[in-house]
Design brief:
The protein has 164 residues and is α/β, with parallel strands linked by helices. Helices cover 36% and strands 20% of the residues.
Length: 164
């Protein structure tokens, strides 16, 4: 009984060490499984439903040479870190959000944005991975992308647009 009493009296210390350990190992895991922006394409989607891992795997199947990975995130992923959004390579946005995001968007092949889902159509680019709302959605390249010049962001964007 005395042993249990001693353990429970120090439970808060054990919980704090467990929490610190979990944060530390999460940070290590992130550092090991990520790469530099020059070796990856980051796709941000402002949609209600997103199968991010499955879409990333599908896009990695035919990546341009020199890339190591494709990361796909919803805007919820970077809610408090808008600096990382500025470095995104590809954006899929609803028409209602385009005006507020213009500062980090670049045109796609001379057009402001490419329509990837028309409202009411029920279909859109990569529709099996992306759940669009009943609104027009456009694809843009990121103005801060390191892959604007080398064309790799555009190549992955074209691949995404060709998916059903």
């Amino acid at each position: 009984m005395r042993i249990l009493k001693n353990i429970f009296s120090q439970l808060h210390t054990f919980v704090l060490w467990l929490l610190a350990s979990a944060i530390f190992w999460s940070w290590i895991f992130t550092m090991v499984t990520d790469t530099s922006p020059a070796k990856k394409i980051t796709v941000y989607c402002d949609v209600p439903r997103l199968e991010d891992t499955d879409l990333a795997v599908a896009l990695e199947a035919d990546m341009p040479e020199g890339l190591r990975m494709v990361k796909v995130h919803s805007f919820d992923y970077v809610m408090f870190d808008m600096e990382s959004v500025n470095k995104g390579d590809i954006f899929i946005l609803p028409a209602s959000d385009v005006a507020e995001c213009e500062e980090f968007l670049a045109p796609v092949e001379g057009e402001d944005g490419v329509l990837v889902h028309a409202a009411g159509s029920g279909t859109g680019a990569a529709g099996q991975y992306i759940g669009y709302a009943d609104e027009d959605y456009y694809l843009f390249l990121g103005s801060g992308s390191v892959h604007l010049e080398d064309g790799k962001a555009l190549a992955v964007a074209r691949q995404l647009m060709e998916m059903e």
